[in-house]
Design a protein that fits this description.
Blueprint lengths: L3 E2 L52 E9 L2 E8 L4 E5 L5 E7 L1 E6 L2 E6 L3 E4 L5 E5 L3 E8 L5
């Protein structure tokens, strides 16, 4: 199916990306007046505008990666998808725009922009873009032990 590629303006492409740059304190201000560095996305962002679909492919962009989970943006061209697979962690799909058919354990679910769907751990699922669509995938890893 589709391939994962770099997004224009993303860190992967090496070009600057407004909204992902950290705050840089004014070097002329006093040490006490300096603001701490602000992590990426600490200001409001339109997630759908942060990634663009590319014809015939699947594009991904990692927004946040921690030991406890990841948040990743995806953009799928119409007709692209992900073949059936499963993960040992629950994941929440938030469709930002467009329409996708997500099959979970053999049951198809049509998910439109503004809707979300839980992908339960260890249950096979697949995705197929009914139209070009963008989604935010939030995967939570539970601590072991």
């Amino acid at each position: 199916m589709g391939q994962v590629g770099s997004v224009p303006g993303s860190r992967e492409s090496g070009r600057p990306n407004p909204g992902f740059e950290s705050y840089q304190p004014n070097p002329t201000s006093s040490h006490m007046a300096q603001k701490p560095s602000v992590p990426p996305l600490s200001t409001a962002q339109n997630l759908a505008q942060m990634i663009q679909a590319q014809e015939g492919s699947v594009v991904s962009r990692e927004v946040l990666k921690k030991k406890t989970g990841t948040v990743t943006l995806f953009a799928f061209a119409e007709g692209q998808g992900l073949s059936e697979h499963s993960t040992p962690h629950d994941a929440l799909v938030q469709v930002l725009d467009g329409t996708v058919e997500i099959t979970i354990g053999g049951a198809p679910h049509r998910v439109d922009g503004g809707e979300a769907l839980l992908l339960p751990a260890n249950i096979p699922h697949s995705l197929s873009a009914v139209t070009a669509f963008k989604m935010l995938l939030i995967m939570i890893r539970e601590p072991v032990g």
